[in-house]
């Protein structure tokens, strides 16, 4: 089976992990500190990243750092993995969906503007497939209305918009390092941002809410070196050194991963050019995506048949995503099918073809041939 996504691991990655296993630290230690600096440098931000155990943990930690709580509203896209929404709900927020742009599948600023209320705390855009959100427009909407912009960049570390790195475009940005993503720590994620206070709250949250920092302790008098204090609720989302070491080594090859993913995208685009039943992914002017997915859209209503055809021929196609508001948990809150027609139309025709750095040109050509044969058959 040719998977739709997979990790790229080399001997240097293995040695980086082995070096940690031979050392004194397995959990949070010097490799985590180095990785957080490496991620921040990639994102173009001054403050070290807050590393966590998954992309979902990154979202939860980011919402906590932003102070999201009961009574707040978070506007987000229905065309995403559901954690973009549910992690805000864990903080007590109300989710408000807004439709997407037809070309990129990213949150549509006009739809967001219509959804903003006086309770809007965060606008959470998703870099669908690796294409950056319209951060200038969404950020202006957020700031003009007393809100903040979160960029869910689970798909897009290493991408840029108008030369600005993903990670520097929004108030807070979250990354995922799952094996199918653009680099991996096996499981892991990170939060970066522009406000040190937000990042400090995020760091406290992912560390179970406690601190040993002498400058933060409220009652340190007469206490020994064992002393700590719990100032707020938090969770244990701490990334271990053994995974952080893998991540730092993977970052050394991020540019190569990006180059190969761009080559694969271009080869698919060329192979599907001129076929009316197919829609290839868009790339807006100024955007330099880190393509995490190749989201092909079939426009003749035969997505299920194409999916089954590819799977029957050992091609691990996938669908990204089932619209979030279609899920029962959101239906119970009153959301209904048909409310976001652009996102629903995009989802109904979308099929993710294999996309990872280890794909050969022969692999890509085989997928192209199978799709073309199906469409013309």
From TrEMBL:
Keywords: Aminotransferase, Pyridoxal phosphate, Transferase
A biological-process GO annotation: polysaccharide biosynthetic process
InterPro entries: DegT/StrS_aminotransferase, PyrdxlP-dep_Trfase, PyrdxlP-dep_Trfase_major, PyrdxlP-dep_Trfase_small
Pfam families documented for this protein: DegT_DnrJ_EryC1
Residues the record lists as N6-(pyridoxal phosphate)lysine modifications: 181
A GO MF label: pyridoxal phosphate binding
Active site residues of this protein: 181
Superkingdom: Bacteria
Cofactor: pyridoxal 5'-phosphate
Protein family per UniProt: Belongs to the DegT/DnrJ/EryC1 family.
Protein name: Aminotransferase class V-fold PLP-dependent enzyme
Organism expressing this protein natively: Flexivirga aerilata
